[in-house]
Amino acid sequence: MWAHLREMEYSETYQDDVYEYRHVICPKSVEAAMYRITKFERHLTEKEWRSVGIQQSRGWEHYEIHQAELHIVLFRRPLGTDRSTGIPPEVPDIIVTVSKGACHSDGSADVSCAGLTGRQLLSLKVSRDLSIREFVVRLAKSLNVRDTQVKAVLPDPSAQLLSSFPQSQPLLEVLEAYTTNSQ
After folding, report:
1. How many Cβ atoms from other residues are within 10 Å of residue 76's Cβ?
2. How sure is the predictor about 91, in pLDDT bands with cuts at 50, 70 and 90?
3. pTM greater than the 0.85 cutoff
4. CA 76, CA 78: separation in Å to the nearest integer?
5. Over the chain, what is the mean pLDDT?
6. How do residues 113-154 score in pLDDT, each as one tens digit?
7. What is the pLDDT of residues 20-51, one digit of tens each?
8. How buried is residue 157: exposed, middle or buried, by Cβ count under 10 Å (0-12/13-18/19+)?
9. Is 14:21 a contact under the CB 8 Å cutoff?
10. I need a labelling partner for 115 at 20 to 30 A (CA). Which of 27, 37, 47, 88 fits?
11. What does the alpha-carbon distance between residue 135 and residue 137 come to, in Å, rounded to a whole number?
12. 56-69 burial, b for 16+ CB within 10 Å, e for fewer?
């Protein structure tokens, strides 16, 4: 039953500034089991990846489905995670000032994101209907951090957190209202 465990190949870990990564190459029998569980439409939970025979210390999350090679399971965990408890270290929040830039003919606009020092971190083109929640997730992914770490605020003098607005509200609607009221 568990003969496939000998066929699992675990990579060495590698890292960036935020996460430690590893991948596991699974035999076809495990790929089939993963398909039965998720249809490859979502990530495996820890309980699920352990149930198909993947064995590793705590704190790892299945974070991406590699469509080209579904038998390769990609994992990550925050740097400094306790290997025995799976508890990540406390991480500081990233405070980002968000302001609207150039508008485009399709209704989208450039949104500028700056750090506390005022240094431009990135500029994203966002669609008219992109919600605040979707924006924060996209911003976090661009910054390579967890979305729970991102605290997006309107520019001074307001410095109002975007999290104080309904998260389904379109971002550009909030930014346009802010721009109108601050002039």
Report:
1. 22
2. low
3. no
4. 7
5. 87
6. 888 777 888 888 999 999 999 999 988 888 888 888 888 888
7. 999 999 999 999 999 999 999 999 999 999 99
8. exposed
9. yes
10. 88
11. 5
12. beebbbbeebeeee
The answer to whether the CB of 112 falls within 8 A of the CB of 121 is no
Whether the Cβ atoms of residue 130 and residue 162 lie closer than 8 Å to each other? no
What size, in residues, is the chain?
A: 183
Cis before 157? omega within 30: yes
DSSP for the chain reads --GGGGG-EEPPPEE-SSEEEEEEE--HHHHHHHHHHHTTSSPPPHHHHHHTT----TT-EEEEE-TT-TTEEEEEEETT--TTT-PPPP---EEEEEEEEEE-TTS-EEEEEE-TT--EEEEEEE-TT-BHHHHHHHHHHHHTS-GGGEEEEPPTTT--BGGGS-TTSBHHHHHHHHHHHH-
